[in-house]
Amino acid sequence: MGPSLLQLCAVGKNMTISAIRRRVSPRHGKGGHWKAGDEGAPPGAMAPSPPSPQASGTQRAAAEEVAEYLDDFEQEAAEDGADDAGPALPVELEEVAAVPIVPDAQSLGATARTVDEESSHGAEAHEEAYADDFEELEDEPPSPVAPSAAGCRRCAEEQALSEVQRWSGGEGGEEKAEEKAEETLLESVGSDGGLLRRAGPPWQVIHWAELEVGALLAQGAMGAVHAARWNGQSVAAKTLHDTSANQLVATEQELLMHASLKHPCIVALHGANLEPPSCCIVMERCEYSLFDRLHRQSRDIDRRKMVQIASQVSEAMAFMHSHSPPLVHRDLKSQNVLLTTSEDAKLCDFGLVNIKVVSAGTPNYMAPELFLSKPYSTSVDVYAFGVLLNEMFAREVPWDGYKPLEIKDKVVEGGRPRIMTSTPSIATSLIRSSWDGDATKRPTFESVILSLQDLEDSLPLGIAGLGINATDDALDALLR
Questions:
Q1: Whole-angstrom Cα distance, residue 79 to residue 72?
Q2: Which molecular function terms from Gene Ontology are attached (predicted)?
Q3: 425-434 and 379-394 are packed helices; what angle lies between their axes, rounded to 10 degrees?
C-alpha cells in the first residue's frame, strides 16, 4: 500500500501533521481551520506550524504559501462577518506544490516495440536487432501514470480525518497521533523528497553483500545472472544493468507478479533489492533453459521425458489461467522454460503479463491475432505452446532464418513451422489444434494436459522403462 493521502498532503506542503489535522477538523459543523481564539476552539488550538528547518527551499516556500493562503482566507471571512459559514478550504494540491504521486499498480507496465514499428528501421536494423533470428522484441520501461489530483482531492479530507481520529483518541491521544504521524512520514519520504511505499514488498529484501557469488551463468542487455549461495542454498542472482527510475518501476511490477505465482512448475522468487546501486534479484537455481537443451546440447532427449517437460509447462500455464481474471503469459517460449538438474521444467519471465501493447512479444511464437493487434485471450498462450511442442519434437528453432516481418506475413497467411514426420500422431494432432488460426478452436491447458497424458501412455517404455541396463546383453536381462 502506498502512503496515505494524509501523508501525501503533509509531504507536498511540508506541514506538520497537527496542522493538517486542524485543516480538516470540523468547525461549527463545517470543514475549516481551527485557530487560537476561535469560538468553541479546543484547548491548545493554534495556527499552522511553520515549515521544518530540515525542509528544502522549495518545500518551505510551498508551506509558507499554504499558510499565507489560509490566513488570507480567514481574514476575508472575518471581514465579511462569515466566521462560521466558510466551506472547507479548496486547497489545490497540484497548484501549491509539486507532489510526487506513487503510481497505482494497474496503471503500470512496460511498453514494447511492436513488429510494425520495426518496419521503419530498414533491413540493416533488422539484421542488427535479430542477428540470430530469434531475439525477443525489446521492452521499453514504462512511463508512470499518476492518479488524478481530482481523485485525491475528492477523498483527501475524509481519509485524513479518519487517520487523525484513529490515533488521537484516549489519554495523550494528541501526542500519540503526532508521534505516529511523524514516524510514518519518515518511513514514507525518501532522501530526495519522493514518496516511498510504506508497506514492504511481498518478497524478502536480499542485498548483494549477503550472497556468495560464483560463476557468471548468463549475460544480456538487461543484466547478468550469477550462480550464488544464500542461506545455505544454491540460487541464481541477477544484477540489473539499467537502474533508471522507469526501469526499476517496470522491474518492480514484474516482481510483484512473480511473487504472487507460487507453483512447483514456476521458478521460485526468493527475494530482491531494488535500491540502487546494488540492485539484484534472487531466484531458484536451475541448470539451463529448454532452448539450450534443445539447440545447444547434442545429447538425445528421451521422448517420455520430453512429454513430461511439456506437461509441467502446461501445468504452470493452467495455473496462471486459473486466476480470476486469467493471467496471460504472452511470452511462452523455450528460452523462458528452465530445467533443473533432474530436468524438471520451471516457467519464468512474467514481464509481458500486464503489457497493454497487443503486438509485444517474441515473433517466433506469436499468434496471428497478436500480429494483427486484435483482441486476444488465454488462447495466445496455447498457440505458443503448440509452437514450443513442435520445437521439442523437431529440435528446430521455429522460423529459423526468418525476420520478424516475414514471420508475421507467413503466420497471418496461415503458415506454420514444419512438423517432422517422426512426430507421434497424438502430438501432431495436439500441435495442429493448439496453433489453429481460429483462437476459439484451440484447446484449454486442462485439455492439453489430458492429451499429453494420452501421448505419454502411448509411448513405448524403452530401455529405461523396462529397467534394463544398456551394458547388459539380452540373456543377462532375461535372467534377472
A1: 11
A2: ATP binding; protein serine/threonine kinase activity
A3: 140
> What is the pLDDT averaged over residues 331-342?
97
pLDDT at residue 223 in the model = 87
Exposed/middle/buried for 149, CB within 10 Å: 0-12, 13-18, 19+? middle
Name the one residue in this structure whose C-alpha cell is 481551527. 34
Report yes or no: 369 and 376 within 8 Å, Cβ to Cβ: yes
CA 440 vs CA 32, 316, 376, 382: distances in Å: 59, 21, 10, 11
Neighbours of 12 (CB within 10 A): 24
Three-class HEC string of the chain: CCCCHHHHHHHHHCCCHHHHHHHHCEECCEECCCCCCCCCCCCCCCCCCCCCCCCCHHHHHHHHHHHHHHHHHHHHHHHCCCCCCCCCCCCCHHHHCCCCCCCCHHHCCCEECCHHHHHHHHHHHHHHHCCCCCCCCCEECCCCCCCCHHHHHHHHHHHHHHHHHHHHCCCCHHHHHHHHHHHHHHHHECCCCCECCCCCCCCEECCHHHCEEEEEEEECCCEEEEEEEECCEEEEEEEECCCCHHHHHHHHHHHHHHHCCCCCCECCEEEEECCCCCCEEEEECCCEEHHHHHHCCCCCCCHHHHHHHHHHHHHHHHHHHCCCCCCCCCCCCHHHEEECCCCCEEECCCCCCCCCCCCCCCHHHCCHHHHCCCCCCCHHHHHHHHHHHHHHHHCCCCCCCCCHHHHHHHHHCCCCCCCCCCCCHHHHHHHHHHCCCCHHHCCCHHHHHHHHHHHHHHCCCHHHHHCCCCCCCHHHHHCC
CA gyration radius, the chain = 30
pLDDT at 80 over 80: no
Neighbours of 231 (CB within 10 A): 12
In which band, very low, low, confident or very high, does the pLDDT at 474 lie, cut at 50, 70 and 90?
A: low
Q: With the CA atoms of 108, 113, 117 and 122 taken in that order, what torsion angle do they form, in degrees rounded to the nearest 10?
A: 160
CA atoms within 13 A on the CB side of 400: 7
Is residue 15 within 8 A of residue 51, CB to CB? The reply is yes
Q: Write out the three cell numbers for 190.
A: 525518501
Whose CA is closest to 100, among 154, 60, 146? 146
Count the residues in the chain: 480
Residue with cell 501445468: 315
Task: Write the pLDDT tens digit of every residue in 307-331.
Answer: 999 999 999 999 999 999 999 999 9
Average pLDDT, stretch 469-480?
A: 55
378 Cβ contact list (under 8 Å, min separation 6): 321, 326, 328, 444, 445
